[in-house]
Amino acid sequence: MVHTPGPTRLAQQSMAFVLAGGRGSRLMELTDRRAKPAVYFGGKSRIIDFALSNAVNSGIRRIAVATQYRAHSLIRHLQRGWSFFRAERNEFLDILPASQQSGGENWYLGTADAVAQNIDVIDSYEPEYIVILAGDHIYKMDYERMLMQHVETGADVTVGCLTLKRQEASSFGVMAVDNNSRIVDFVEKPADPPPLPDDPDKALASMGIYVFNWSVLRELLLDDADDATSSHDFGKDIIPAMVKGGGAYAHFFSDSCVMSGLEPAPYWRDVGTVDAFWEANIDLTDFVPGLDLFHEDWPIWTYGEVVPPAKFIHNEENRRGRAVSSMVSGGCIISGSNIERSLLFTKCHTHSFSELFEVVALPKVVVNRHARLKRVVIDRGVEIPEGLVVGEDPEEDARWFRRTDAGTCLITRPMIERWIAAR
């Protein structure tokens, strides 16, 4: 469906709290130096930009971001790209690193504890509603629609939910709902997910997005903080307890997913593995991608580096700067190389006679002459040596690089240094 964003009256009474402290260990070496929300995506963005852009585009201009694991690059990105809020207009983006608040533990013990440790900060802005968001998913959503449902139903909590095939829902928290979308049961990663009332082949999976009245959540967090048996987590503790109380409702993502009209279906991705990260980036090069980044009514805001346009040079036989079915960002120089179905981030440089097929190259990657790369993810700042071939010999690839069972290779600077040292 083509979605027109709603009014912002409820959004203006709301605050967004983004949970952005996760490591994302399944992304392997991509998160050795950065938290998962700070990982690059889509040519110029970071993963966290999607949750933040959804909030701003929905009319929510009071935002807090809780950071923890390897937070420097994330904090630097927020400072550079999200510093346009004006306090005199009651706008802000607060960065809340884990810190010792009251003589106890300084790390956030769980998602609920991350909010509980910052109750005083949230109180100071006096929100009526609080929207809890995960900072590590790719999607476009109008939170105002979810807020409207929350108020209309009189819910204690409204949970954003994906409609999935039942066999795909086992790795999520799954909701059983009645015909009024009231949640009657919550099961964490069930082997046999409960079906939808009107579709036995589908199940509702939690997106990790919640809307609360702040006064209600505040009391719940204080009680949870005093419970020594709690894991202080929304999905494990807070939401199941509220479901038992009868005041929890499901919000269908399809009711608030923002679409330009070109996408085939509502789009949501967890790019939490190397394969999923590679696939979601490469999918953007499709003729009609599942996620429309060109939709002007719902832009994905980010830090915009000042760089020149991409440049393509050389026009000789077998030495032609060329990119087909690809996305090439500003500051790139495609010098006599052949690029197909690939995505190059800012300031990449590919040299003559190199060949790239289904490559995701993060910023400032250099690919030297005669290199041949297929189905790879290249970390920021890596220089691919002259003549290196990856993607043609699985055993050789696995010897030097991180190769997944599906055949995606992740290449980082230490891996290249080991390869060079062995030559």
Kindly summarize this structure in a few lines.
This protein is of the alpha/beta class and 423 residues long. The protein is built from eleven helices and 29 strands.
Kindly describe this structure:
The chain is globular and about 70 Å long. The strands form six sheets. Strands 1, 4, 5, 6, 8, 9, 10, 11 and 12 form a nine-stranded mixed sheet that branches. The chain has helices at 9-12, 48-57, 72-81, 111-116, 119-125, 143-153, 214-225, 234-245, 274-283, 394-400, 413-421; strands at residues 14-19, 40-41, 45-46, 62-67, 92-97, 129-134, 138-139, 157-165, 173-177, 183-188, 202-213, 248-252, 268-269, 311-313, 315-316, 319-320, 322-324, 327-328, 333-335, 338-340, 343-344, 349-350, 355-361, 366-367, 372-378, 383-384, 389-390, 402-403, 409-411. Strand 28 (402-403) and strand 29 form a beta hairpin. It is an alpha/beta fold and 423 residues long. The protein starts with 8 loop residues before the first helix and ends with a helix.
